Amino acid sequence: MNDFDLILKGGRVFDGTGGPWHRADVGIRGDTIAEVGPLQQAGAKRVVDCANMAVAPGFIDTHSHSDLMVFEDPCLPPKLMQGVTTELLGQDGIAAAPVKGEQKSDWGRHLSGLLGNPDIEWTWSSFDEYLTALERTGPGLNLACLLPHGNLRLWVMGMEDRKPTAGELEEMIALLHQGFEAGAVGLSTGLIYPPCSYADEEELAALCSEMTRYGGFLVVHLRSEDSQLFEATDEMLRVCEKSGAPLHISHLKAGGRAQFGKAGELLRRLETARLRGIEVTFDQYPYTAGSTMLFAVLPEWLQEGGPDKMIERLKDPDIRRKILEEVASRTASTIDLSDIRVSAVGSQKNKHVEGKNLLELEEAMGRPLIDAVCDLLVEEDLNVSMILFIADEEDVQTILRHPLHIACTDGLLGGKPHPRLYGAFPRILGHYCRDLGILDLEEAIRKMTSAPAARLGLKDRGLVRPGMKADLVVFDPEAIIDTSTYEEPRRHPKGIRNVFVNGSEAVREGQALDNRAGRVLRR
């Protein structure tokens, strides 16, 4: 007689709470953990020997950019192969939905450097229709989704840089209600990305006040992560203090050379805010470089009016000179040209520049730097991504150790991507826990499982406990390590043997299976 569909036998169970591991068997029926304990007398259709292995809840990626690429490759092997069983879409306030029919083409071009440009049909307009499209795709892992603030603004106001009228704000609030009733888990904004960056505190607080009725939280890419870091942090703390919304800061960092060493001061500011009653959490990827659209390093005014206006400006020699002056003034004490690498382009024509920094780009394209950058963006119709070395390793470790920290990848899927796409979670468990001793394994796993589950409001995931969904990772604590590098990023990690999503095996003996058992998690 089979008591269970599957037993994971004799592993070291890290239950996700941060408490000490214990040796136990894990019995699974269907999509649910049925029992945790000694199951020597129980029968099962399949028994997996986990001796000397760690058994943990599936990892939850709280910052991902698979919003469109999941339709092209629903299994998302770069995530599954590093133990991710749930990821959070809709980041940075600029994402796939809601979007009006007549805006889809331009919006897709605008997002291409962030979300890629797969050959798919945008069959949705509303947020609910987008979630339904994800469900029909049959993803390989679970997907939750934030409602992007920029999309609300785009729907109502286009790409106009101004305050909304009272009526326009009411329209945005109505769209917000529709999104949360469809299942959004929170609201995102990216205050370096138009049209989000056109919003003031009053607009953000009004939207957040409505969001609190649904138990959501605000996820923000701060208006500045470098020279105005503390002012940008205080801005969002004021928004959340006014609205009562919980605040979650994306990819927390002290960016730029002038900010190196200031992570501790930043963390103390967040701790003080919590003492005042503001609920604050944050995520971080374990690298000193970030990644986003290449045009994000250029002046924000270039983007007003949408892609066609931006390309028109990028072609103008007088505007190019203005861009050069502004960028040189802004970045002189922050980054070097060698700190910025082209990570992905849309066409085959310019594939040869992927992986090159801006000094190398100038040489490869045989023209002055500003012309090389602007011409590349024009030729690629804006579909260019970059990797930007902006943080200090000591600050990365300071943030990683903090109890409010949650792990993420922030991985972009195109071209020659940032190695975080393939290696963020194993890098923490191998490099930072085992090799450097920055964290113990129990605490690191808590930051990847129960902590993000609590932040997202996922009551049935993030713990190895009876009644929880059977999202599980089996890995070797002595072998787990990232192998992806900036030079060779598309390399899967070592040491992860099995991954289960809703009780179904997605990775077996270190090989991804075409087994799409993921679900769209509507709040």
Structural features, described:
- This protein is of the alpha/beta class and 523 residues long.
- Among the domains are: 1-82 and 413-513, Roll (Urease, subunit C, domain 1), CATH 2.30.40; 297-389, no CATH class.
- The chain contains 17 helices and 21 strands.
- The protein has helices spanning 69-72, 77-80, 104-115, 127-137, 149-157, 166-182, 201-211, 229-243, 263-275, 307-315, 317-331, 358-365, 369-379, 393-401, 420-435, 441-448, 450-456; strands spanning 4-13, 22-29, 32-37, 44-49, 54-57, 59-61, 84-89, 142-145, 147-148, 187-190, 218-221, 247-249, 280-284, 289-293, 340-345, 384-389, 405-407, 472-475, 496-501, 504-508, 511-512.
- The strands form 4 sheets. Strands 1, 2, 3, 4, 5, 18, 19, 20 and 21 form a 9-stranded mixed β-sheet that branches.
- The longest helix is centred in the N-terminal third of the chain and has 17 residues, at 166-182.
- The radius of gyration is 22 Å and the shape is globular.
- The relative contact order is 0.17.
- The mean pLDDT is 96.
